[in-house]
Amino acid sequence: MIARVTSPTAPVATTGYPWPIETAQLTNGLRVVVSEDRTAPVVCVNLWYDVGSRHEPPGQTGFAHLFEHLMFEGSQHVKKTEHMKLVQGNGGSLNATTNPDRTNYFETMPSEHLELALWLEADRMGGLVPALTQETLDNQREVVKNERRQRYDNVPYGDAWLRLLPLLYPQGHPYHHATIGSMEDLNAAGLDTFKAFHQQYYAPNNAVLTVVGDVRAAEVFALAEKYFGPIATVPDIPPAPDGSLPDPATEEARETITAKVPAPRVYLSYRTYPFGTAGYDAVTVLATILGNGRGSRLYQRLADGSRIAQPDYIGSYGVDLAHAPAPLIITATAKDGVDVVTLEAGLAEVVQSLVDEPVTTEELDRAKALLTTAWWRGVSTVGGRADLLGRYATQFGDPSTAADRLPRWLAVTSEEVTEAARQVLRPESRVTLTYLPGESA
Amino acid sequence: MSLITTRPEPGAARPYAFPQVRRISAHGGTVIAAHLPGQILASAVLLLDAGASRETGGREGTATVLAKSLEEGTKQRDSAAYALALEGLGAELSPSVDWDAFRVGVSAPGPLLAGAVRLAAEATRTPKLDPADVTRVRDDEVTALRMDWAQPGPRADATLRADLFGADGRYSRPLHGDPTSVAAVTVEDVLAFHESWMLRPGVLLVAGDLDALDLGALAEAAFAGTSGELLEPSGPLGVVLPPARRTILVDRPGSVQSTLRLGHRAPERATPDYVPMTLAATVLGGAFTSRLNHLIREVKGYTYGIRGSYAMSRRSGRFEVAAGVQTAVTAPAIRDTLGEIERTQAEGVTEAELEVARSWRAGQLSVEMQTPGAIAGALATLVVHGLPDDYYETLRREYLEATVETVSEAASKHLAVEKLTLVVEGDGAAIRTDLAEFGELIDADV
Q1: How far apart are CA A169 and CA B149, in angstroms?
Q2: Which among A37, A142, A373 is the nearest to B301, CB-wise?
Q3: What is the pLDDT of residue A143?
């Protein structure tokens, strides 16, 4: 374990996960992770399925996410509206998310309802297909199309992520298309395809069950065996298409959109390194130095200094994807009277400064202090911890490696940030997406 | 082998307890702190009786401009030095304004909290407020509001508020003002607001591992150099309902969804009906399995989500249903929504529905109150509404003991389907004709 002091008064972080972690594996392949914490009478149950939109073949974009919706519509022993009713009706909060890498399902419950949560999750892992009907599929397809309208189509700049992905990743790459999918593909989705999708990927040997909170590990392992033990292993689950790329990109990509937006906005984006690598840790620190907070270079130079960018809409962040070089996204929105050329040039200049001007100790310490607080905020709930452990178990094979992330961020040196900038932030690898106010073409 | 067919019974419940609360009075102010053993992160909120309701007419947004000016440097250091000092502790300032209070929040690992509170207080009590900076922040805020108002929602919200609270001065205008009112805010307005309302000690709320925090040092950091008495609270605005239902159209040409905001006034937070009203709204539109979400999302597929709720502040309250629905089904979605409100008002709730609502609301008190930030927010509710330290235990018991009769009675008393204002923000050319069936139709001028 690496220990480093980030500033004269900051506590030394030798681990990012000071709670116990116990693991087991059922004979059907389901991995079970338990982290006990008795401080509050709550427990989170979290399932990571190693299937996301990166697994979708052409013509089936949006299927993994639409499938996530179907998982709430009843299973063999759970009636159509019962899942939500049983979780909320017993005091719980629940949700699910799908991204290019994976799909996760989680509920935080008062701890006396642990067994209920496990029963519900097991029933939809092992018994969804018999309950899946055309009516349910048709209805949830409409809900997902409404989600697309509400989150992407009816919002200024709302489709930026949908536009950046195909610019960042070539045709045929698993990250080329967005998780929400296309309306055309969703309309074409048939019931049998979904049944096959479930049988293929929703397998105990393709999932990690994580339970965090007011529980004992031995009890959870016994209950996992009771509820998930009967579910059969699925042999030969096909892997997603290979995500490896010759990095970095060697050809600049650019798209300019004229749309009903209130001000010009520029996104610069780059492929970096997969989440979990030393390179991506340096990019995480780099993104914080560049665009997180009022002390960041972007804020200091463009919002506070030259005052060409709106202070509320400036920033940079990595998208934590693990199966191919993950994107770094940098954005700024023009102040009144500032043209987009000036804004883009200003943005590019600050980005280049990470290559040309050494990162100061103050900048580095500021970034690490912010990352430290963000880390502890992320693990301040049982839900945050369960998701974290599920991620590391799924993507790196060992939940205890979650503890290393914070110390690794804190060990990044200013030279490593500069080296990451030199490798990643090349003008010839840049993706530029620009929005201009006007009537849509 | 096969799946377990029967739903398991719950285990023994551990008794609910809100974190232990400690209070100290020092340096003219009060610290209220909740003990979260083992939490590495700690949160503090400086709560001042300086909400948006204290703003001058026509200058709505003054407090928000002040909130955004606090970090433009202090009497001790310039803005860049301030940002580095605060962010060097891992903390960021979160100033916010609501109807009842001005809050300045910071979170940091426990050992760094006192330093972060000291800096938060420095910005709150002794901001530089250089006229050129305030003017620039004001202009940025006008631009930011224009950005925000380009999204669906803010214009509909403002239209509903203007209609419900038209005779109530500040309450008829948006919480953070609108682009016009913020553009009218002057440097003098901001300085006067600061001078009038930001220098009293106020209350510091703290949540974290108190074994590692020195409350006396936090009090000194928050209150040193302050003076002034507590302010007298003003009375409630009352529940005024219009003679009949009406529809207001906010045109958004080309919109692929219609944004619905249907509402009427309701009692303020101190109402003795708070618990049954909250449960009635949960059955109607709060839980995922609510009547509205079930019918409009799950059965009809008109929306990604629909919510109905009461929002209550110290002096006012309102009932509201909010949703974004596909343009082509705007009228059917409104019709079905009104049907469910009417049914809930007329027939009340069933035991099966109420069972979900009461367990959910009670369980959420532990499930949703885990972080230091959430606990500090819960402490703020106690202060703003004058509630006792054991309030959350009482609230949980009242939720669990609520009956079908009391909740149905609250629905009947506090829902008024015939008095609703229906604000619809959408493509006027596509939906105007269809809206005629809901009565008088007015065009909004926002």
Answers
A1: 33
A2: A142
A3: 87
Strand B203-208 and strand B29-35: the pairing is parallel
pLDDT number for residue B285: 97
- Indicate the SS3 state at residue A120: helix
- Same topology, domains B21-223 and B246-443? Answer is yes
Please report, for chain B, the start and end positions of each structural domain, with discontinuous segments joined by +.
21-223, 246-443
Q: Can you point out the beta strands (E) in A68-226?
A: 93-98, 103-110, 207-213
CA distance B7 to chain A (A): 7
Average pLDDT over residues B172-177: 97
Q: In the predicted model, is pLDDT for residue B51 greater than 50?
A: yes
- Which of 168-197 (A) contact B at CB < 8 A? none
Burial of residue B305, with CB atoms counted within 10 A of its CB: 0-12 exposed, 13-18 middle, 19 or more buried: middle
Q: Quick one: pLDDT at residue A165?
A: 97
Could you give the CA distance from residue B155 to residue B146 in angstroms, rounded to a whole number?
Answer: 11
Which of B7, B15, B41 is closest, CB to CB, to A376? B41
What local confidence, expressed as pLDDT, does residue A1 receive? 33
Place B275 in a pLDDT band, splitting at 50, 70 and 90: very high
Give chain B's radius of gyration (CA, Å): 24
Q: Which of A122, A156, A310 sits opposite B150 (nearest CB)?
A: A156
* pLDDT value of residue B288: 83
Q: Are B2 and B175 in contact (CB under 8 A)?
A: no
pLDDT at B145: 94
Instruction: Give, for A42, the enclosing helix (H) or strand (E).
Output: strand A42-49
Q: Is A106 on the interface with B (CB under 8 A)?
A: no
Q: Which residues of B touch A151 (CB under 8 A)?
A: 304
User: Minimum mean pLDDT among A70-84, A96-110, A221-235: which range?
Assistant: A70-84
What is the pLDDT averaged over residues B285-301? 92
Q: Which residue has the higher pLDDT, A248 or A161?
A: A161
Q: Identify whether A248 is preceded by a cis peptide bond (ω within 30 of 0).
A: yes
Q: Can you read off the two tokens belonging to residue B70?
A: 């606090």
Type and span of the H or E element at B96: strand B94-97
* Percentage of residues of chain B with pLDDT beyond 90: 93
What CATH number was assigned to the domain covering residues B246-443?
3.30.830.10
pLDDT of residue B446: 83
Mean pLDDT of chain B: 95
CATH T-level assignment (fold) for domain B21-223: Cytochrome Bc1 Complex; Chain A, domain 1 (3.30.830)
Q: Using a CB–CB cutoff of 8 Å, tell me whether B78 touches chain A.
A: no
- A183, pLDDT greater than 90: no
Fold topology of A22-228: Cytochrome Bc1 Complex; Chain A, domain 1 (3.30.830)
Identical topology for domains A22-228 and A253-437: yes
Residue B10's contacts (CB-CB under 8 Å, 6 or more residues apart) are A90, A112, A113, A115, A116
Q: Identify whether the C-beta of residue A167 lies closer than 8 Å to the C-beta of residue A255.
A: yes
Q: How far apart are CA B140 and CA B147, in angstroms?
A: 10
DSSP state letters, A164-187:
HHHHHS-TTSTTSS-TT--HHHHH
Q: Give the pLDDT score at B406.
A: 98
CB atoms within 10 A of CB A182: 16
CATH class of the domain comprising A253-437:
alpha beta
- pLDDT (tens digit, 9 = 90+) per residue, B185-205? 999 999 999 999 999 999 999
> How crowded is the C-beta side of A205, counted as CA atoms within 13 Å?
13
Q: How confident is the model at residue B75 (pLDDT cuts 50, 70, 90)?
A: very high
Q: Given the structure tokens 């230091």, which residue do they identify?
A: B372
Residues of B in contact with A108 (CB under 8 A): 367
Q: What whole-number distance in Å separates Cα of residue A304 and Cα of residue A318?
A: 23
